[in-house]
Amino acid sequence: MIPAHWEPHHRDEDGEILGYLAPAEDGLCVPVTLVGHALAEPGDADDARAALDSVGLSYLADRWLLTLPEREEPVSVQIVEVGPARVRVANVDFGYEEADFGHVWELDVPADDRLRPARS
């Protein structure tokens, strides 16, 4: 579940939530995605909001890497649904034969290090 102390940031045009401002040390905050992944280093709140505004929700269409306990290499996935408590990701990794293409995993949010963008 998204921590209660993370401040949601909404898009001005339509009120859609883009991510959160997570408190950091020295009064700074970190802009994080809906799944809890940091988008930038800690900064002031205005910089964090600007980072979320510049990315929007485009990261939801990107490929992500899911680390599974039984596999050394991460699995390539795409986000199919995200909410404040859970994220659902689908297998898009043709090389992962242990699960069908399109198989869906459900993870707690924030997803921590188990789920990370495929590109840095």
Write up this protein.
- This protein has 2 domains: 7-59, no CATH class; 63-117.
- 22% of the residues are buried.
- It is built from 1 helix and 8 strands.
- The chain is elongated.
- The strands form 2 sheets. The protein has a 5-stranded antiparallel β-sheet with strand order 7-6-5-4-8, with no helix packed on it.
- With 120 residues, it is mostly beta strands.
- Helix content is 9%, strand content 34%.
Please give a quick description of this structure.
The protein is mainly β and 120 residues long.
Which range does the strand content fall in?
Answer: 25-35%
Order of secondary-structure elements: EEEHEEEEE
If you average the pLDDT, what whole number results?
94
Estimated radius of gyration: 15 Å
* Sheet having the most strands: 5 strands, antiparallel
Which class best fits the helix and strand makeup?
A: mainly beta
Q: For the record, give the distance between the C-alpha atoms at the N and C termini, rounded to a whole number.
A: 25 Å
Helix coverage percent: under 10%
The number of domains:
2
Which spans of ≥5 residues are poorly predicted at pLDDT below 50? none
Q: Please tally the β strands and state the result.
A: 8
